[in-house]
Design a protein that fits this description.
Elements lengths: L4 E4 L9 E4 L2 E11 L9 E8 L5 E7 L7 E4 L1 E11 L6 E4 L5 E2 L15 H11 L4 E8 L2 E9 L5
Antiparallel strand pairs: 1-6, 2-3, 3-4, 4-5, 7-8, 7-10, 8-9, 10-11
Length: 157
Amino acid sequence: MSDEIVKVQPDELRKGGYCMIRGQPCRIIEIEHVSKATANGNKKLHIIGLQVFTAKKYEDTINLTAGFHGIDVPVSTKAQYALLDVDLSTGFLSLLTDGGETKEDAALGRADDGKAFDDVGADIVRRFEADEPLTVSVLTIMGKDIVVEVAKDTSAS
């Protein structure tokens, strides 16, 4: 088991949170306990999620009784950065940390076609080109950075 994944109990999972579905890191969009479907009354959990890098839908039903040892959850952190620059050809961002360092390894997400930027990325490009001071929220998951939110930088007035 890598240090990028931890095991949790089913009651720790929440809609909007993250877990591994069929080996893929996913943001949970639906989670429900399935009523006891067998004579032995095995408890099951049905999870539907979107893969965090591709937005592809994954789902699984997990047996919570026989041999159950927990559900894999990718370790994730979220941080805010001031946006300095956007490389429109690669989608990589130049960000400023709270400590005054530059961070250059976060990239905008891609849409399903793999060419255009996703909705958040397109919003960042549009607002950056309009010279709006921005902060971005970067989710680090499975060792990769994904830009998940953008907001007006109110401290840059």
